[in-house]
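Re-running DUF2326 domain-containing protein to confirm reproducibility after the cluster update. Everything else is unchanged from the original entry.
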Amino acid sequence: MAAQADLFAPAIQPPQAPDGRAGPRLWVRRLAIFEDPQTIKRDVSLKPGLNIIWTPDMSNSGSRALAHGSGKTTFCRLLRACLGEPGYATDAQRSRLMARLPNGLFAAEILIDGVCWVAIRPLGLPGGEFVVQADSIEDAIARGHRDGDQASIDAVIVSSFFSTIAGATPAEVSREQVWDVIRAWLTRDQECRLADVLAWRSSQTQTRSRAQVLGETAKLTMVRLALRALDAEERAAAARERELVAALEEERRRHTYQQQRYAEGLKAVRLALGVSDEVGFEDTIDQKGLVSLAEEALADAMRADLPKPPDVGSIFARQKALNEEHETLTAKRQELENETRFKRGEAERYRSEANQGEIDISQGGIRVCPVCRVSIDEVKAKGCGIALERCDLPAIRAAIEEKQKKAADLDSDASAAQQEAKRIEALIQQLEPRKQALEAEAKAADAASRAAQAAAKAVQDRVYRARRTLDDVRSLREREAAARSTPAETTALETVRAKLKLGYSRSRAAIRILEERYQGIMAAWLPEGVQGSIKLDGHGLKVDAEFSGRGEVSTAALDSLKIVAFDLAALHLAVEEKADLPAFLIHDSPREADLDGQLYARLFSLVHQWAEEVEAPCFQYIVTTTTAPPSELQGDRYVRLVMSSTPAERRLFAMDI
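Result of re-run:
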């Protein structure tokens, strides 16, 4: 059922700054573009309150010039860059600007609590940007960049506006990035089309802002901190929730892995025990359980007899004795063979000597002396020229006979040794069958020993597997019991989330103040019968608009209108210093094509009323548009810059880029 329209919705009043506040705490007084440090191409003065940057469409310009391509979005991006945003253009746009204006620069006079800061950024090569206190842009350019100058104004703005929340930001946002994120909210990308309350930066714009990659939760936290809708207790609970959620996620992954291992282990033990999937861990009336079956399997394995290996020691001892006997006989045979060869050689030598002497003394008519080998006849005729004594032929014959006897004796001994060697060789040959038999016996014993070892190992493996299966069954039973218990983190998470709900309830007071401003803006802006609401819960921040009797209505135009109203409500709170925000806001072409022109005109009128009904407006609202603002706001006081896509001189850079 659709909610009824709130007939007592508060009328929106102009925001009232605290006493003594004579202007915005932060506002941009001037933006200038230079062709070079001495030549200015565009100089735009801005003021507190409403500032309109207008490119008339064809219905208002009276020409065929398109209302697009004049530089409205670039104007906003140059402002954002002077306020600290890293990228002022896409890479392609920057390359064109560097080519056309290699010595160009742009600068802004930014007032913070009455102090003028000048931010200067180069259009050409990067690296020359600086921020300095100065009375004017020209003074800052004349002074020039010096060592120690800040490159960005972020630190000044953070210390001026966000010292309270800088230490409470989410982990994804450092102290130095606080203004970078809040700036993205207060100066939304035109490419985001005001699609969502947290849609601030598009990747297309290549701004290099932290907000471009920040998650929704972190951005919502930054919005709540800025709106004072997030206290320390809730932040602590949120941090604890993140820890517990991470722990539970890790536990879930671990549990999933363990469940998989558990299922695999259970399947393996059932397979090992040869039972079906119906058999559980414990015994039942009908059948034994896995634990009992595993215990029985282990007992059966341990009762198995181990085969006794053969006594290979005695075989090896007999082989050793046989080898020693073989070696002894072989050595004896070798000795006898050597003796035989030696004695036959000696006998041959004696016979040779005896035969030589015998020839010498038995040659008849050619007898020679056995000593000097000279013919006897010649000795007798001439005398012996060598020997002094006459030859003793009988003694020589006796010596020959002695040598012949020794040769015969040696031949006899050699024959005896030869016979003994043959006998021993026969003994060696007789050892061969015994040796082969022992080798066969050893081979059989080795095979039997290996078989016994294999059988023993099989028994041991069976015992090991049975013991392992029993251990696995007992471990699986314990894991099954543990899996049924509730993790401690689950209970703790429930407690923490209860604290978060209380935190949401406490923050509801701050959100209610914002909602009142939002409802007042919607009531002043839209036809009667429209009710707005802002909801903050565990699902995020939701901005709604409902028509009486029709419920929530969503169109592209209405959705963008809701985001604009939300931003204006935050601006309202910032002026009254009920939010940790500078009262500064830029909307780049906030009108969707199907938004009624009269409704769009009320946006300008509403902000104009806020500025005119107070002595000094304490905010700055900059809006670009192609639709004509109300006629009473088309003067120079509110329209700070009028541009056109043609001719080129009327574009932002006064040239083709």
